[in-house]
């Protein structure tokens, strides 16, 4: 009896072993042709490229809140890409400095940890793209039309290419219209350049803005954009400088009621993509991304112009003190030396911009 039981157990065990072996070799894929396995192995170590059938979710960082025109441009960019790829490439927008400061997000793009970001062009100067500093020179543009004639021309293209050429780790896709920048303060209003003397003014973390505010005889104070509201509220700074859209959508008028229309800088935003992300895209997807970026740039320009026309009236209704400055010649005189400091090596670019039609 024991002998029969033992033989039965051995037989059952043998059946289970055979079944397990068959299961381990089952697959829904056909067996590879001869040489296929070696061919696949020989591709290891080659640059990874996302095929046209591969689902991708990419991340885009932005400093401003969702209702800012430049953030709306990011959403339009994402929509255009998703539409052109039938949903195969999706771009998630992280607005309102959710992924860190301007410098932190640029570093993340450079390292491949973030796919897209929209810094101000001046920030890229500190990362090595020195030609970008030309766009942040005070009063270099006469008006918006002049600005976009220059940006869409040879000089603008050369400056955009400097991101990839001089920084490394990222590529410039297009410019975004960020509007002209103005001074806003809590307490005493700024009506002349002399009124800037001794004021603590928040600036982005880059050299050209610090030197510009110093030239106005104020005290430049680098500060994370996300901390600016509370910094004005608590007196850490007396004010800051930003665009009309930035002033309104971030509710800075609640803590800094004086808004002086200095138009001292009109440096555009620049949409950058991580070089690692770019290199993973197929040539077709690269073209889609580039075209969507350009289209969204046109969208941002239109939305920013429309937004600014309505925003000043809204700000007055909200209690902001809008200060018109008719003569900016004294402001221009104070910062003239910056053209040599930041534009001395780019005289041809400056001339091309100033004469753009």
Describe this structure in words.
This protein is α/β, with parallel strands linked by helices. Helix content is 46%, strand content 16%. The chain has 15 helices and 11 strands. Helix 3 packs antiparallel against helix 12. The longest helix is centred in the last third of the chain and has 35 residues. The radius of gyration is 28 Å and the shape is globular. One of its GO terms (biological process) is transmembrane transport. Keywords: Signal. This is TRAP transporter substrate-binding protein.
Task: State the main characteristics.
about 350 residues, alpha/beta, 6-stranded mixed β-sheet, 5-stranded mixed β-sheet, 15 helices, signal
Task: Describe the SSE topology.
Layout: H1 2-24, H2 36-42, E1 56-61, H3 69-84, E2 89-94, H4 102-111, E3 116-117, H5 121-125, H6 144-151, H7 154-167, E4 170-176, E5 181-185, E6 200-203, H8 207-215, E7 219-222, H9 228-233, E8 239-243, H10 244-249, E9 258-265, E10 269-274, H11 275-280, H12 283-317, E11 321-324, H13 329-334, H14 338-343, H15 347-354
Parallel strand pairs: 1-2, 1-3, 6-7, 6-8, 9-11
Antiparallel strand pairs: 3-10, 4-10, 5-8, 5-9
Helix pairs in contact: 3-12
GO molecular function: carbohydrate binding
Region (Disordered): 25-51
Protein name: TRAP transporter substrate-binding protein
């Amino acid at each position: 009896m024991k002998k029969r039981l033992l033989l039965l157990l051995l037989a059952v065990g043998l059946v289970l072993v055979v079944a397990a072996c068959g299961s381990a070799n089952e697959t829904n894929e056909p067996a590879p042709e001869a040489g296929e396995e070696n061919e696949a192995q020989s591709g290891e170590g080659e640059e990874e490229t996302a095929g046209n059938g591969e689902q991708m979710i990419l991340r885009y960082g932005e400093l401003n809140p969702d209702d800012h025109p430049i953030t709306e441009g990011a959403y339009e960019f994402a929509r255009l890409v998703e539409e052109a790829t039938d949903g195969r490439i999706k771009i998630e927008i992280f607005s309102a400095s959710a992924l860190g400061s301007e410098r932190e997000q640029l570093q993340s793009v450079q390292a491949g940890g973030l796919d897209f970001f929209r810094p101000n062009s001046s920030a890229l100067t500190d990362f090595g793209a020195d030609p970008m500093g030309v766009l942040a020179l005070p009063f270099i543009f006469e008006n918006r039309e002049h600005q976009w004639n220059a940006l869409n021309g040879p000089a603008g293209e050369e400056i955009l290419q400097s991101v990839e050429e001089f920084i490394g780790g990222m590529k410039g896709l297009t410019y975004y219209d960020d509007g002209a920048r103005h001074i806003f303060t809590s307490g005493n209003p700024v009506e002349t350049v002399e009124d800037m003397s001794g004021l603590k003014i928040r600036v982005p973390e880059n050299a050209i803005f610090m030197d510009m505010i110093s030239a106005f005889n104020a005290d430049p104070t680098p500060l994370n954009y996300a901390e600016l509201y509370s910094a004005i509220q608590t007196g850490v700074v007396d004010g800051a400088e930003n665009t009309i859209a930035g002033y309104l959508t971030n509710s800075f008028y609640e803590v800094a009621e004086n808004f002086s229309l200095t138009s001292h800088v009109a440096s555009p935003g620049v949409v950058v993509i991580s070089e690692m992300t770019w290199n993973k895209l197929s040539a077709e997807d690269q073209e889609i991304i580039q075209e969507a970026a350009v289209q969204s740039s046109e969208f941002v320009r239109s939305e920013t112009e429309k937004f600014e026309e309505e925003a000043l009236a809204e700000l007055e209704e909200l209690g902001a003190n809008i200060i018109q400055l008719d003569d900016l010649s004294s402001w221009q005189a104070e910062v003239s030396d910056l053209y040599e400091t930041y534009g001395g090596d780019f005289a041809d670019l400056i001339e091309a911009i100033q004469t753009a039609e």
